[in-house]
């Protein structure tokens, strides 16, 4: 979800090849543009222009369009980093007698993702609140939000397949339920004025939603990875 990006530790099967310096610089530029776009959308809504995003990020307009097709697309990397972070957390290897059931592991990972641990994480949540409030006036921005969550659900499916060993339908239902709980929790929190870490904050809302939406899936009661 909308947490501050952390360096990748690689896939559960081993470390990923280190990107080249050029690739890292491109990724940093793309993410900086995304942060700028999110902050501007949160502040001014649909009135923001691609030129304004580029100027504020300190890049040429042609550089902006080298990375993104539209101004709304510019927020996708920031949203995707946050959404994928909790999936990477869930996918991290865990074994032994203290390994929690998959249902509990899902809730714990979701809580961690939506509990801001520092100021950048808190700021990312605030940007996301602003983005969600701007979406009614900008359908293209809403489409980006839903596309990011669609991609997240697809990424979550193989992780849950490995953790549960369940049949494909059950795995897809579990992925859809967990992803929906995350999305709805953030949307519900963003619609109000509750603080990020209170009893009506996104972490508490996602725990409630996760329990409700996965209640009919007994396959999640087994230990992760069993």
UniProtKB/TrEMBL annotation:
Gene Ontology molecular function: any one: transcription cis-regulatory region binding
InterPro entries per UniProt: Homeodomain-like_sf, HTH-type_TetR-like_transc_reg, HTH_TetR, MftR_C
Domain of life: Bacteria
Residues of the DNA-binding region: 49-68
Keyword vocabulary terms for this entry: DNA-binding, Transcription, Transcription regulation
Pfam families assigned: TetR_C_14, TetR_N
Every HTH tetR-type domain range: 27-86
Keyword Cytoplasm: no
Biased composition range(s): Low complexity: 1-13
Region (Disordered): 1-27
SUPFAM superfamilies: Homeodomain-like (SSF46689)
Protein name: TetR family transcriptional regulator
Originating species: Streptomyces chattanoogensis
């Amino acid at each position: 979800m909308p947490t501050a990006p952390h360096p990748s530790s690689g896939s559960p099967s081993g470390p990923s090849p280190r990107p080249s310096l050029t690739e890292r610089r491109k990724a940093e530029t793309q993410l900086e543009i995304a942060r700028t776009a999110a902050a501007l959308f949160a502040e001014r809504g649909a009135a923001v222009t691609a030129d304004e995003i580029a100027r504020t990020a300190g890049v040429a307009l042609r550089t902006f369009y080298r990375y993104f097709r539209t101004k709304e697309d510019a927020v996708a990397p920031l949203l995707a980093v946050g959404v994928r972070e909790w999936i990477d957390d869930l996918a991290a290897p865990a074994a032994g007698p203290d390994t929690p059931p998959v249902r509990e592991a899902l809730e714990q990972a979701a809580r961690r993702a939506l509990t801001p641990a520092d100021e950048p994480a808190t700021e990312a949540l605030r940007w996301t609140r602003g983005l969600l409030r701007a979406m009614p006036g900008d359908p293209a921005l809403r489409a980006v939000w839903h596309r990011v969550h669609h991609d997240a659900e697809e990424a979550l499916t193989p992780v849950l397949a490995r953790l549960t060993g369940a049949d494909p339908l059950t795995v897809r239902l579990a992925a859809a339920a967990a992803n929906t709980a995350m999305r709805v929790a953030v949307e519900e929190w963003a619609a109000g004025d509750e603080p990020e870490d209170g009893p009506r904050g996104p972490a508490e809302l996602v725990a409630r939603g996760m329990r409700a939406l996965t209640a009919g899936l007994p396959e999640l009661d087994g230990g992760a990875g069993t």
